[in-house]
Amino acid sequence: MSKLLFFLVLLLPAVSLAEPSVSYRSIVKPETFIQNCGQWPDSILFQTKVNGAVVWFGRSGLYYQLFKRNEAEADSSDQHLTRLVHEELVGANRNAEVVGENESNYYCNYFLGNDSTKWTTDVPTFSSIRYYDIYPGIDLRYYFRNGHLEYDFLLSPSADPLAIQINYQGIDSLITGAAGELVVATDWGKITQQPPTVYEATTGRPVMCEYQIEANSFGFSLPPRRSDLAIVIDPVLMFSSYLGGNQNEFAWDVSVDKQKNIYVVGYTRSVDFPGQVYLDTTYDWDIFVTKLEPMGRSILWTAVFRGTEIDIATSCKVDQSGNIVVVGTTTSTDFPMYRPLPGRREGITDGIVFKLTKNGNQLLFSTLIGGLEKDSITSVALDKSGNIYWCGNTWSTDYPTKSAFRSAPTEVPWGFVSKMSPEGDSLIFSTYLGFSDDYFSIAVDNSNHAVVAGRTWDKYFPLVNPIDVTRGDVGTFITKFTPNGDSLVFSTFLSASQGNAFRGVAIDSEDRIYVTGTSHAVYYDEQPYPLANPLAGLAWLEDGVVSLLDPTGQDLIFSTYWGGWESSHDEFRDIAVDSSGYFTVVGYFDSPEYRFINAIDSTIYWASGEVSIVKFAPNGSDIVYSTLLGGRRGEGCWALDVDNSGNVYVVGATASDDWPLLDPVDSIFAGTVDRPADCLVAIISDSPTDVSEDTEGGLPLRFTLHQNYPNPFNGETIIQFDLPRAAVVDLSIFNILGEKVRTVVTQPYPAGSHQVFWSGNDNHGNPVASGVYFYRITTESGNLSKKLLLLK
Hints:
mainly beta, about 50% strand
């Protein structure tokens, strides 16, 4: 097979990149709204994206729309450059029938601007497309296989292969290399197409073939053959992409439905983000909503919301029917609206609230809400009836109020809390609360009490039945409203004298309240953060805090610090509790030391920052696991959710090209060191993997994979695993692209504890390079994976 490797090197075009793999595995059929751009000489039939480029399938051939950073205009709104390379099928049939084959489950929805006639939904995607009779007796087929985009020329027995002629426009030169490969040179990088593999379709016997080059065109040279045998010319187009595109994007929230489908919301500046099919490059932040199958097996659909300016999604929740409610902020005056609330005031920025059907192709409503100044919605929650609650901050003195606890602010910015009907047609209540200009969160209990948690600098912030009146430099508050929103059940601080901040709030089936955030170190006789049955009793420079209160807010059941050791900067951002009372927090860690417990990733990249995930037993009685997850360049994680089996889902953004991967839908990081932000999504199983319990007979009770030792290592490392019953074991090593480099063992093992050794060599006995690798054990019981680090 001929492999077309696209080397898009923005800063060092002479450097060859490692062979990548395609991660965005759908070919999109665009609608007419993108087909009439003047820069495109023929109609666009299909589109896909690969490793920093968008590939357009036209009637005359392919267009590669390439992007790179505009260093000369780094501070302007036009921060990247674009160019086209046209791969023209010379003399091809321009009226060839082009058909999408093997329609996938993934599709795209576009809500662009406030003119609903330009919205396009249910745009299909395919795993392959076919040009019929592109040349006489010759079909051309593009398709995805084994993670790569490939193409075949399929020749009937009577077809003339010399008819195939491909011309490149927008390149510098076209030559053949010493091994017969085709090298396409541009000033942005090179395309290398390996020698073609040609075989008889009926027998599979190979046929000799070479490229024939003339100027910037090439074809194929074949020997005489039997006229009754069809042949296939099967080159491979190989590109790759991380989740995201050629600019920054951030996954800001995640919600999981009853079927364990995953909804991720955030915002992107990439014109080639999955689901984006824009030809123009005059863009700003756009909102994306992406739905994935259970366990992230594939992307089902993406919906893009775009105004002419900045549009940001901050929070989402799935209702009982699988519809998704999203909130955020926009500066666009033409943000897509449908059945909006009446009497909208157009401010500097406005809050956004919209609801999509579970298929992502229909807006149930979309509205802006706010006053004449700046308004921002930070968090959303739903009750069992589908009523929608949100909170945020406003600099407006005319934010819409109804049945308000406080109908006007004494100063701005102030926090607000609002409740809307499930249909989005009316406000049930809407009220100011108190001074706050920071992110804060909302949750709803079984009796429709809204609970909000955040921070304030206001010494007059309302307190009702408080458990703690210590405000400190920064007062961290928990406030519970009555169901009609016009009064408070309680409002209290949980504060330290050095200040702290709540970021997340959750409520369990007994209406108990969980909050998480960050608190600063306490020195000498200063007031500490209030603790109850703590698992760690001292904050260092900055530690995460987690607290559990009873429904009345009068009893502090559990409260603890948690984080690294000296000089640590640890921040918890979100919290979720499952049906069994286990609660999990996620946030950011930056310290030379960490409290690892049953960790799935124990590699510390100090001064870069990593995702920190801690799962607590009910009532905070113990730690199930405390683990890091990340790469060498840092990441941030802002939200999590849990499903009905206790699995934990986290989302955020990463700057690391070695973010740990496992069966990814998107395997290649598309950012650069100076432009670091691609979305991350991870799922952690509820089953502990590092705890081995023995029966009376001395056999393990659980299928377990242990962390390798030593780690990092140089020379040889030990990998241990436990089998509760006899099994055939496959233990293999993978690189960060998900490619297998070594099969360590494939053999039967009896029940018991076992260990194997890996010396850092691949399957050919060659030493592998230093870096991050993953080892995975597979048996009939399932598979488990962990990360290891090889240093030379």
